[in-house]
Amino acid sequence: MKADPAVQRQLLELAKVDAELSRTEHRRRTLPELAEIEAGEKTVREKRDALVSVQTAASDLDREIARQEKEVESVRAREDRDRKLLESGSVNAKQMTDIEHELQTLGRRQSALEDDLLELMEQREALELDAQRTGAEVDKAEEAVAAAVARRDEELKDLDTTRARRDEDRAKLVPRFPEPLFKLYERVREHKGIGAALLRARRCGACQLELDRNTIAEIKATPEDTVVQCDNCGAILVRTLESGL
Length: 245
What we know:
- The chain is mainly alpha-helical.
- The protein has helices at 5-29, 32-88, 93-173, 179-192, 213-221, and strands spanning 196-200, 203-204, 228-229, 236-239.
- Strand 3 and strand 4 (236-239) form a beta hairpin.
- The two termini are 20 Å apart.
């Protein structure tokens, strides 16, 4: 393939633009904020699950406390009724004995129920503190994710700006190349990542392989307007005074 040496040298400008575009895309895919956001969102989910678990336990305990309070009130109502019967003087001796015995039983029952209720309320207080702490952890995790998202978006904005500029530079460069040369460049770049590189001091600028004497001799004997490629990576080798030929 033939191409004006000056045009071949302009491939280095195109390769430089494409290299920056590749770095930009790589940066976009590997932003540290992406991993931070993923880990942060996982933490948020875990904290939210923990909060739901605590809230569910608290709700269950509220129902148990309500049931226990209702039972205590039932016992107290029964005690009040029995005491009023005793105070009314309308019961005989046997009934009085039975009522007094029942009052003792009710007293013990009420004491046990109130002890249980106190324990339940202490558990509920502990759960409330746990819920507050876990809620604060959820808020903190969400704030961390939001901060990482803001940093990511700022980074992406800068990368978008860089890509737009390099796309504009590339659009200006591409028309300078004959179609066969550009197609070769694109084909090599697609498969190898670098389409063209400077041959500097007998070394390929793409794969950094130092060319042997025979290869250098062949390139030296090749007309300047003939396009040559690296035998190792296939990149178009652009020859200049730095090539050491």
